[in-house]
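U., I forgot to send this yesterday:
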Amino acid sequence: MTAPLRPAARGIPARTWFDFATVLVALILYSIAWPTLFVTHEVSPVTAPLLSALAAFPILFVRVNPALGWAISAGAALLFSIGLQPGADNDLPFQVVHVIVLFVLLFAVALRAAVPIVVVAWAATSMLFATTMPGSDTGPLWGWAMGFGALALFGYLVRILLASRRKLERQEEVTELERARRAILEEKARIARDLHDVVAHHMSMVVVQAQTAPYRIDDLDPASRAEFESIGATARTALNEIRGLLGVLRSDGQLPEHAPQPRAADVPALCASALRAGLPVDWTVTGDLESVPETTGLVVYRVVQESMANCARHAPGAAVHVAVAVDPGEVSVTVHNAATATVPQPGAGGGHGIDGMRTRVVAVGGELHAAPTLSGGFEVSVKLPTH
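Result:
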């Protein structure tokens, strides 16, 4: 019977549990105040239930409106001290239950009410006890004021502590949202770079193959030539659309990938693939590519890949030379192409190739230089640390 009830009990809010506990405490205090009222004061059986309720039930306001509960309890205490005659063996103006309820409500007022209301409740409670309790004729007022002031101050300090914790929780939520937003931006930047480095590279190879096919294949009829031209135009259009998508995905402050896939050792295979696709490329490798760290190796791979794609787009048919040298503490990459008489196709520019390479290189502490050569070609030179 109890096992199925446990999940339901865990689903009840803490506020509801607090209300249940408050009602239970109020009933217990009422059950104490009613029978003992005949001992502490001279009352009739008719008024005893109402007077006991005034002593115990104001505690029900401790969460919903502690200031109202305090006002009812303090007014009832003043009524007790003025209108009721204490019993023969009692010298207190009101019951101990009443005192407990006043203490609890004053603490709740300090915990939740506005500061002016806290000051009024503290001053009125101090005055009430100082003028009605035994020895009030000779006892100093400041004694009660200090006692209730300590209680109110403690409640106010707890209030500040709880407010600080809530503020900290809200700040942590904001920080978590910002962290999630930053992670999304980083992922978008990673997708943009990979899209450009992978898809655009292979699309450029399609353009190269389509443009060089009439020169590589003999006896090509006009219809086939037109088909190859159509393939090249379609591929260029696709590249422009990819760049439009990259404009949405790319963002500032891009960070390097956390799990790179290609390595520096894959550069020869990349060059061989471009050569099979029709790009006139040759390459030289000096040093051990396997010794290049993964993060730096990824940058080397992407720089070579993007540089060859740029050559294919802006200088179709021109010879391309790739040189990679691994030295102690440094790896250098140089990609340059010869001049070409072919006029670049309209819309061939406007990509993110150089910017993407520069972002990757700077992220690992390297340097990139990209500029036209004196012979009319273009050269990309990169130096990257390997430690």
